[in-house]
Write a structure and sequence with these properties.
The protein has about 575 residues and is of the alpha/beta class. The protein is built from 20 helices and 12 strands. It has a 6-stranded mixed beta sheet with strand order 6-9-10-3-11-12, sandwiched between helices. A 4-stranded antiparallel beta sheet has the order 2-1-4-5, covered by helices on one side. Helix 6 (about 135-155) runs parallel beside helix 10 and helix 7 runs parallel beside helix 10.
Length: about 575
């Protein structure tokens, strides 16, 4: 339509008119073919853009969730004690999606949007200046292109608060479900169906109410956003009609400007809406993004020093030199200026009343935390000066609650040594007797040639195929797989019957011969059977030490614990 007016004496071509005239075809048929080519090219470009966007979104989500998962495994015990497992799970699995959406909006083509905005407004301005509109009217209409979307962004701020409520409601429902799902048999035994059902109903009812509230604000925001373009188109057309005189010739000349303006408004408005939509999306996603950012920015409690050395393999003594530790700054001292050397190649034990620092001492030696004062050395090397990987490889703990996964038996062993062969696993299992006494009979019952193909479940309990004693023996056998220098046994008789405790006491001296071992257990008879030296920990200090026989023959904390346990 602009080219049709080119030869009109009253038409004054502008810069864009001249530029378009130099590249546009001179005939309508050629213009039609060009239009078809542009349509096909745009369809292809849209397909490629959608495909690339989906690929990029999935990659960002993958990288983000992997990074969060790996970061979580490097955070110290303080973080895990403060954060509920349900919330942590939701952060990694669910909230990462919200963070991914915001990140994708950040890296998408803002430059293209700004270029589109610039040329669309320039073209729109050129069309308006050739019309009969006044300068003030033109400025007002162009200003509306920015003001109206910004008003929509201001309205979207309400979404941030409701999105925070949605996040908290989701976490609350997931945590409540885990409260019931963690031990459903216990719920049945206790007859707690009503209490659990009511608690879960309360959470999901609250979540439903928050969903309705969120949908209300999102609908208002969506309707406003979809109505902005036709509203502005109508506003511009009305302005043209009012400004134009009732003259057929002028209206005919203005027809091209009216159509051009009508088509250019969406082009000019789209980049603005994209930018405003980004900030609106931030308001909606930020409550989820914040917990993701908080996790990623959390620093581990212990970190390697620059140029940390490798911990030398071999049988090592473990020395605590004037070690002081408390969980809170200025709080009660769990360990108070304690010093002791656990001899290399010997089995030592720490005994104390429940909750008085036994496991804390083991955690410090493994460098799960650092003491406030003093130092800990293994084979003369300060553990703060060695790499964490070499420390974890040389110092192994059989936890009171060992890590198991729902997978094959082989996969559970390979947690201790990545890529461990079947032969290596069989070797350590034979040292503890676990292979012949437990695994081979179980494999025969299930007609399996290789016992390591046996299925294993993460949780034990009633109806499971692996008893507490078998699980404990698996963990003990697994501790030998990385060929450690120091081994900790944290409550090895916890959750096992008397027969299994007796078997474990017989296995430890033979299977772990020559290794430095520190044992913590609540059963004094077990400690006396396996330990060559016992250190008594009372009120944060090492008060006595000696062989089991020596401590039982004189007044000591170990004798008191032994006698009270028998009673």
């Amino acid at each position: 339509l602009r080219r049709m007016n080119w030869d009109d004496p009253g038409f004054e071509p502008g810069f864009l008119d001249q530029a378009m005239a130099s590249i546009m075809p001179g005939s309508l048929s050629a213009l039609a073919w060009l239009f078809l080519i542009i349509v096909l090219a745009k369809a292809l470009a849209n397909f490629l853009a959608q495909w690339v966007s989906s690929w990029a979104d999935s990659r960002v989500t993958l990288k983000l969730q992997q990074g969060m998962h790996d970061k979580l495994l490097h955070l110290g015990p303080s973080y895990h004690q403060k954060h509920d497992l349900g919330k942590t799970s939701a952060t990694v699995v669910q909230f990462a999606q919200g963070a991914q959406q915001m990140l994708c909006e950040v890296y998408r083509s803002w430059l293209v949007q700004l270029i589109t905005l610039f040329f669309a407004i320039l073209t729109l301005y050129q069309q308006l200046t050739t019309s009969e509109l006044s300068t003030g009217s033109i400025a007002l209409l162009l200003g509306a292109l920015v003001v109206v979307p910004i008003f929509g962004w201001w309205m979207s701020n309400y979404l941030r608060d409701v999105s925070t409520e949605m996040r908290d409601a989701f976490v609350s429902v997931q945590s409540e479900f885990m409260n019931s799902g963690a031990a459903p048999m216990e719920v049945q035994i206790m007859g707690a169906h009503k209490q659990r059902g009511q608690a879960f109903h309360t959470k999901i009812l609250h979540q439903a109410k928050v969903k309705v509230k969120s949908a209300f604000f999102q609908t208002i925001n969506r309707i406003f956003s979809s109505s902005t373009t036709p509203f502005l188109q109508a506003l511009f057309i009305i302005s043209f009609v009012i400004a134009m005189p009732d003259d057929a010739g002028q209206l005919q000349r203005a027809a091209g400007s009216i159509v051009a303006v009508y088509l250019l408004i969406p082009q000019a408005l789209a980049p603005v809406q994209q930018i405003v939509a980004f900030f609106a999306g931030v308001n909606m996603s930020w409550p989820q993004v914040k917990v993701v950012v908080d996790m990623l920015e959390t620093e581990p409690e212990v970190r390697e020093v620059p140029d940390a050395a490798e911990l030398t393999p071999g049988s090592h003594d473990v020395t605590l030199d004037a070690v002081t530790f408390s969980y809170q700054k200025g709080g009660k001292k769990i360990l108070d200026n304690i010093s002791h050397t656990f001899p290399a190649g010997k089995r030592s034990a720490i005994v104390a009343h429940a909750g008085k620092g036994k496991s804390t001492a083991l955690g410090l030696i493994m460098r799960l935390r650092d003491p406030q004062e003093g130092s800990i050395t293994i084979g003369g090397q300060d553990i703060r000066q060695v790499t964490l990987d070499s420390l974890r490889g040389q110092v192994v703990r059989v936890s009171q609650y060992p890590l198991f996964i729902t997978d094959t038996l082989r996969a559970n062993f390979q947690l201790a040594k990545d890529g461990a062969t079947d032969a290596e696993i069989e070797e350590v299992c034979r040292k503890t007797g676990f292979w012949d006494q437990v695994l081979v009979p179980k494999a025969k019952e299930r007609f399996l040639k290789n016992p390591l193909d046996l299925d294993f479940t993460r949780e034990g309990g009633e109806g499971k195929e692996w008893s507490g004693g078998e699980r404990r023996m698996l963990a003990i056998s697994r501790a030998l797989l990385p060929k450690p220098s120091v081994v900790f046994m944290d409550e090895p008789t916890s959750g096992v019957d008397a027969q299994w405790a007796h078997d474990i006491a017989g296995v430890i001296p033979k299977a772990f011969s020559g290794l430095t071992m520190i044992i913590v257990d609540h059963v004094p008879e077990f400690v006396a059977a396996v330990a060559e030296e016992i250190v008594c920990l009372d009120n944060g200090k090492f008060t006595d030490k000696g062989t089991p026989q020596e401590l039982l023959s004189r007044p000591s904390l170990f004798k008191d614990l032994h006698d009270s346990f028998e009673e």
